[in-house]
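Backbone shape codes:
***
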Amino acid sequence: MASTNLRTVDWPGSSLLGPDVPGAVAGLKEQPGNELQVHGSGALARTLIDHDLVDEYRLFVIPVHLGSGKKLFPEGTKAAALRLTSTKATAAGVVISTYEPAGPVRYGSFEDPAQRVASTGAITWAS
């Protein structure tokens, strides 16, 4: 468990990470067992991103816009490419996309050349 204010934890199988969070998480990843997950802590997620400790991102896009809030990837977050491994939408319209790290950022276009068809100089998406 990562916490900035707890001194002990009572949950079975839990332990505090301590001041060296990247080292503690790297050690946990080497142990057999279930996956490690981060819920609700952008600061912890960014620490793990900065130390290349994230193996998979599951991003939930919920169909509302609020206009403000905390960013998962604010200014200063280490840049990296992600590769989409799966995506699905729930009946409520929530889109769940799973990505894995894909090395350094490669700048280019958002276009999918396989979907582009010749037109009058404009890009038309095939349906």
About this structure: The longest helix spans residues 21-30. Strands lie at 57-61, 82-89, 95-101, 116-117, 124-125. The first strand starts at residue 57 and ends at 61. The chain has two helices and five strands.
